[in-house]
Design goal:
This protein is mostly helical. It has helices at residues 3-16, 27-46, 48-56, 86-93, 98-115, 119-139, 142-147, 156-167, 173-183, 187-213, and strands at 67-68, 74-75, 151-153. It has one domain.
Length: 214
C-alpha cells in the first residue's frame, strides 16, 4: 500500500473518533435489514412444505449451538434472555465513525482500482472493511463488544440460521440484524442465502425421512 492509501486509512480511523452523535446502524442499514427479512419471508414461502413439517415437529432445522460469551468470531446481538446487547443498542444510537470510515475507504478503493491490477475487487473489500472498522470504533471497540456478548459463532452461516430460528418474527429482530450488519457487513449479502440453505437441507432430510417410512 502506498503512502496516499495509508494516509486515507489512517484518516478514516482518526475521523471516526471525532464525529458528532449519529447512529452506527443508520436508516439505510435498518431499511436493508427490513429488505433482507422480506427476502427471508419469500424463502419461507418457497419452502412452505418444510415450514409445515417444522411447525408439526416432524423435522427440525439444523441449528448449531452458539459458543458461550465471545469465544467465537461473530458476536450475537441478543443476550441469553433475548434482549438486545449493550453493544447492539449502542450501534443503533451511539457516536459513530462508520460514515467517515466508509467515505475514506471509498476514496482509497478508487485509488487502488486506478493503480493496481484487479484493484476493483480489492477496493470493494476495502470499502466494506472501512465501514466495519468505523462502526466497531464508534461502538467502543472489539473489547467492549466482546465484553457485552453472551454468545457467539465461528461461522456466519450458523450465526444467521440461529438468529432466524430463535428470533424471526420478534419485535427487535430487524434492529438486531441492522446492528449486526454494522460490524459484519457481509451479512447484508449472506443472511438470506444462509437461511435458504438451511431450509433446502431440511427439505432433503424430509425426503429421506419419507423414503424411510415407505
Amino acid at each position: 500500500m502506498n503512502l496516499s492509501l495509508r494516509y486515507l486509512a489512517v484518516a478514516a480511523l482518526s475521523a471516526a473518533l471525532t464525529l458528532p452523535q449519529v447512529a452506527v446502524a443508520d436508516v439505510a442499514d435498518l431499511v436493508r435489514a427490513q429488505r433482507i427479512l422480506v427476502g427471508v419471508g419469500k424463502v419461507l414461502d418457497k419452502y412452505d412444505d418444510v415450514q409445515r413439517l417444522l411447525d408439526s415437529g416432524e423435522i427440525e432445522l439444523n441449528v448449531a449451538e452458539p459458543k458461550a460469551g465471545s469465544a467465537g468470531k461473530f458476536m450475537l446481538p441478543f443476550d441469553d434472555e433475548g434482549v438486545l446487547t449493550p453493544w447492539a443498542e449502542k450501534a443503533l444510537s451511539a457516536s459513530a465513525g462508520s460514515a467517515v470510515g466508509a467515505a475514506a475507504g471509498g476514496k482509497a478503493a478508487e485509488a487502488l482500482a486506478a493503480k493496481v491490477p484487479f484493484g476493483g475487487l480489492a477496493g470493494g473489500l476495502m470499502k466494506r472493511k472501512s465501514k466495519e472498522t468505523g462502526a466497531v470504533l464508534a461502538i467502543g471497540g472489539w473489547d467492549y463488544i466482546k465484553s457485552n456478548t453472551a454468545a457467539s459463532f465461528n461461522k456466519l452461516q450458523d450465526y444467521s440460521v440461529y438468529l432466524h430460528s430463535q428470533y424471526n418474527g420478534t419485535p427487535d429482530y430487524e434492529q438486531a440484524l441492522a446492528a449486526a450488519m454494522a460490524i459484519y457487513p457481509k451479512l447484508a449479502t449472506s443472511h438470506q442465502k444462509s437461511v435458504d440453505r438451511a431450509y433446502k437441507d431440511a427439505r432433503k432430510r424430509a425426503k429421506k425421512l419419507r423414503k424411510q417410512k415407505k
